[in-house]
Amino acid sequence: MQPETTTLPQNTFENDRGKFLISALNGTALYVLAYYLVWGVHQLAKLQVSRFYHLRGSWDPSRIVYTLSDGEWWRTAVVAAHGIGPVVCLVLGAVAFRWYWRGERARRGNFKLLLLWVAFQACNAVFGALLADTFIQAGSWYVPEWLFQLGNVMNVTLALLAGMAQLALGYFGAIAFLQAHDSKTVMRYANRQLMVVSTLIVPWLVGGAFIALTKIHYITMQEFLHLAMMGLLVTPLALGCLNEVFSTTVRKPQPTQIAWGLVALAVLVAIAWRVVLSPPVSFG
Hints:
The chain is mainly alpha-helical. Helix content is 69%, strand content 3%. It has a 3-stranded antiparallel beta sheet, with helices on one face. The protein is globular and about 65 Å long. The chain crosses the membrane at residues 20-38, 77-101, 113-136, 156-178, 194-218, 224-246, 258-276.
């Protein structure tokens, strides 16, 4: 006699696969929204400081470009203009994570995952950006260069420490990330690899590609590097999720369905960002 085998109905597999696709779409929308929120705060803070010090330049969809000659800069202006963005993002990330951990992680819905992505994007805007900017000697690299004036060895050391901090924060953020999901199917440990791909890898790659495409003709190598440096957080975060057996979720999870409002909002924010800043907005 042949041993009996138990198979799940085909529609069960289809339903489970659909939940992962929905999670990937919703996660990508949240990733994009968090990106624009964090970098919007970053760039607005930089713009306000630039106006305070009467600096000249323009703000395009990818970056703020200054039109001052080297001789027109002074130490305070350089440190303030290029340092205010990371400082504000550091505060924003800490507030978002505290809000998530203290008030939202036990609740159902997508808002808690948005808060967590804001915290992750803010982390990348501080640590990942410093590492990326040091490679091309731009952006936040000017802060240690002008503040400490200890040479390239010190700048590279700080950048490497920032990269290591991003790796560590990514790995230790796994428990927080797992608690940000409602679906029992997605959270089932047997589905952990699918969960990592649909909720981490896809949002990072697809979300980053979408952001880059909406900034076509303006996007710079610096911003490409910023998008890539998110991998320093996503990769250890994925490994941490794979190593954790945590698989519970809220008592009455929200049904797994496409958050069309979030998807539409992400697209509209990206389009609005492009339209408002193209052509670039001049200041000073």
